[in-house]
Amino acid sequence: MQPAERGARTLVMGILNVTPDSFSDGGLYAEVDAAIARGLQLAHDGADLVDVGGESTRPGAARVTPDVERDRVVPVIRALTAAGVATSIDTMNASTARAAVEAGASVVNDVSGGLTDDAMAATVADLAVDFVAMHWRAHSPAMDALDAYEDVVAEVGAELDARVDALVAAGVAEQRIVLDPGLGFAKVTDSNWPLLANLDAWARGRRVLVGASRKRFLGAAIARDGVDAADPTAREHATTAVTALAAAAGAWGVRVHDARAAVDALHVVSAWENARRPEGWAP
Predict the structure, then answer these.
(1) Which of 97, 76, 93 minimizes the C-alpha distance to 85?
(2) Backbone CA torsion sign across 124, 125, 129, 134
(3) Set 38, 78, 207, 215: catalytic member
(4) From 88's CA, which of 13, 69, 203, 278 has a CA 20 to 30 Å away?
């Protein structure tokens, strides 16, 4: 697996949902000024990229039109870019991807891996930016019913291979593709863990983005008396644990709500790895 390219540690992608209905922070940053302030805070807390999204992809979420999506995200990206903050655009729509990159975004993050909009691959190829292709089987209202795998690692790996082949055939440079296993997307609880525990098996040496932040499967793992695991914010410590484990496994990036916690975890991983004895050393 290729390591992070921005410095010695795993990249931190800070989540900025400019939506009224995202599962964890819906409505908090729906206004442009609030969204800009949050993006600046994420950058201050150490996010390498602020991932701006204008359409919720939580379970059961309804689609919004590309016009609405662009109206939500483009002013925020433009303002953050002017402030020197690096951004990515979280979108399934090629027209939004193009508008966002023209406003300053440097990465396109598509949860459908280019399957929703037939124009996405050619658009990304033309824009010559990095493209995060997530494993995806259906839009939010239908995705939970598709959590059916005989071997989730092998099947997700094969489906991502197919996306890479299609993207490259459409002109996207293979070195610009980052893979995301789609945690929580057509994977309700137990299907997520094998993908995290076996990153190399499905990544095939490619860069990997891990987006576990505050998701349902973490709530299921930490559920116990006295813990409201149904509250997404109660899953923050579990998210930080996944951040550390993903970084130790060589993930290129982690997509998180709490950038400061992620950066702290990555510094701990770095200190741990730097303290390892040289190979072959013996007392």
Answers:
(1) 76
(2) positive
(3) 215
(4) 203
* Paired tokens of 119: 């124009």
Give Cα 86 to chain centroid, integer Å: 15
Determine what percent of the chain is predicted with pLDDT higher than 90: 82
E-assigned strand segments in the chain: 11-17, 49-53, 87-90, 107-110, 130-134, 177-180, 207-210, 253-256
Average pLDDT over residues 256-274: 96
Active site residue 187: no
Residue 82 has φ and ψ, to the nearest 5°, of -60, -30
Q: Which is more confident, 6 or 128? A: 128
Query: Distance between CA 280 and CA 18 in Å, rounded?
Result: 51
Please give the torsion angle defined by the CA atoms of residues 188, 194, 198 and 203, in that order, rounded to the nearest 10 degrees.
Answer: -30
**pTM for the whole thing?**
0.91
pLDDT in tens, 184-229: 999 999 999 999 999 999 999 999 999 999 999 999 999 998 888 8
Is 255 catalytic? The answer is yes
- 8 Å CB contact between 238 and 216: no
Spot the catalytic one: 72, 163, 235, 255: 255
The conformation of residue 234, written as its DSSP 8-state character, comes to G
CA–CA separation, 219 and 215 (whole Å): 7
Question: What value does the mean pLDDT of the chain take?
Answer: 92
